[in-house]
Structures are given as C-alpha cells and as structure tokens.
Write a structure and sequence with these properties.
Blueprint: H1 5-12, H2 19-36, H3 44-64, H4 67-94, H5 99-128, H6 132-167, H7 176-183, H8 203-213, H9 223-237, H10 240-286
Helix pairs in contact: 2-4, 3-4, 3-5, 4-9, 5-6, 6-7, 6-9, 6-10, 9-10
Length: 299
C-alpha cells in the first residue's frame, strides 16, 4: 500500500530545516520516497550507498574539470544530496533506521565531501595550473570539518546545560515536551518549532515566525548551504573561486554568531543553575518525606 505525500510530509519532515532542503530537496525527495517506500529491501543503508555512488560520479566529473563536466558534477552532487536526505525519511517512515546506519551515513557523508572537494579544486588546478586552487581546497575542507565539529560540540554543551537544569526541576514541573526537547538535539539556532505569539512582536520575531511557518530555520547559511553553494552553484556558474570565498565568509559569519550565542548562554548558566538549586531545595523542604515500606520476611 502506497503512502500519500501528505503522510510523508507529516511523518518525515523536520519541524524546521535548512532553506535549501525545504525549497530544493524535500519536494523531490518526498516524491521519490513515495515511490520506493513499498519496497522494504530499499533500506536507509542502501540509499546511503546509492548517494555515495552518485557522489563518486560527481567527483569523477569534477576531476575532469571541463565546463560541461562541471555542470554534470553539480547535478550529480545535488542528486546525491537528495538521495542522502531520503535515507532519513525512509528510516522515519518505515522504522528501519539503525544505530549502525547513523554511523555509516555520517562517515560516508564526510568521506564523500572530502573527495568531491579534492576532485573539484584538484581538477581546476590541473586545468589552470594555478596553485590558488590548492589553497582554496584546503580552506574549503577545513571550513566543512570545522563546522561539523563546532556544531556537534555546541549541541553537546547546550544539551549538558539543559540536562543540569532539568535534573533540578521538581518532577511535577517537568513537562513531557521539555523532557523531549532535552533528549533531542535542537536546531543549531535553537529553532525547535513555531514561535509562541506575543502582543507586539519585534521585526526579528516576525521574520523568525515567518520562516518557521515555512519550516525554514533562522540559521540561513549553515553547512548545508555552504556545501551546496561550493559544489553546485559554483560549478554551475563557473565562478568557483569567488563563490567559494563568499560562501566561506558567510559560513564563518553565522558560525561566529552561534559561538557568541553559546558564550552568552554559558555565561548565564551558573546563575540559572544556582536559581534552580534554590528552587529544588525549597521544593524538598516543602515536600514531606515518604516513609519507606516495611520489610517483610517470608516464613
């Protein structure tokens, strides 16, 4: 029995996602998921491997480096990303995701991006003989790895702070939604869903609300957009050098803003923790101790 597109949207779409994914990937990926979902042998791991094959083909085209090979490589890379997004949707839709599959997806993603960068900039170096492309390759690979490491570590720190605060909240005050938010990694900008309405929202809130209503996170230039601009837009336009430089600058700007937000959150955390400890102590003082059940011995 085939699922409908509406069911796929409801069960597999993230509440918020990168604008590139929402606008240019999800509409195609959802339709492809609808086609392959009835075939249970098409597992998330199979799709991860298919995405790797498309990525390898893109790297071969980039390595050749001619104009139309660059265009073919860009289209193959986009197709690779679409299939890579399908594996998570299939996992959520059919319940076929595994822990090993998560590891495989992450590792092959990083390997694929590394070799595609090597092929793209290495191919341009062979074509032009300009050493600048080798330096550009080093910068592109560094920024991609930095973004991944930085986002995972920031999520780890934020999760740790949330867990500390939740541990000190009285059981009756911990709502299921709050516990779920603490268990699940949030979006890089803290976008977890619709914004609560306020009487007179600021321009920032109105823009954020507008984007979230369309499932677009406010972190407008994340690692996804960076990779798509470097490996799709740049080869398609032939403006590899300027677009890679501008994309790197945009990524650094957004990452710097995230680091600043994390710094402010960490700086405010001790005061929040102290207040939570006081509330917890007051709760313990007001709550009567429950006597232990008497021990019974079988005769």
């Amino acid at each position: 029995m085939k699922v409908t597109l509406q069911e796929i949207r409801e069960r597999t779409y993230k509440p918020v996602d990168a604008w590139w994914t929402v606008l240019l990937v999800d509409p195609l990926a959802a339709r492809l998921v609808r086609l392959v979902a009835p075939y249970r042998w098409i597992t998330p791991n199979v799709l991860t491997l298919v995405a790797t094959i498309f990525g390898t083909a893109a790297a071969v085209c980039f390595a050749v480096g001619d104009r139309w090979y660059l265009v073919a490589g860009a289209l193959l890379f986009h197709l690779s990303f679409v299939v890579d997004c399908m594996d998570g949707k299939i996992a959520r839709l059919n319940g076929t995701g595994t822990i090993f599959g998560q590891w495989l997806d992450f590792v092959l993603d990083r390997v694929r991006v590394f070799f595609i960068a090597l092929a793209l900039f290495g191919g341009q170096y062979v074509q032009t003989g300009e050493d600048a492309y080798l330096w550009l390759m080093s910068v592109a690979v560094f920024l991609d790895l930095f973004r991944y490491l930085n986002s995972s570590q920031m999520a780890k720190v934020r999760r740790g702070m949330r867990d500390q605060l939740l541990a000190l909240r009285p059981p009756s005050a911990v709502e299921p939604e709050a516990a779920a938010d603490a268990a699940e990694p949030s979006d890089e900008m803290g976008d977890t869903g619709p914004v609560k309405p306020v009487a007179n929202p600021s321009l920032k809130r109105r823009v954020g609300g507008y984007l979230r209503e369309r499932r677009i996170r406010t972190h407008l230039f994340s690692g996804i957009e960076y990779e798509m601009f470097v490996f799709i837009v740049a080869p398609l336009t032939g403006l590899i050098f300027p677009i890679t430089i501008l994309s790197g600058a945009a990524l650094l700007a957004f990452e710097s803003f995230l680091i600043y937000k994390l710094y402010r959150a960490c700086k405010a955390h001790p005061a929040k923790l102290a207040a939570a400890e006081k509330e917890f102590e007051a709760y313990q003082a007001e709550t009567p101790a429950v006597p232990a059940a008497p021990l019974t011995h079988a005769i």
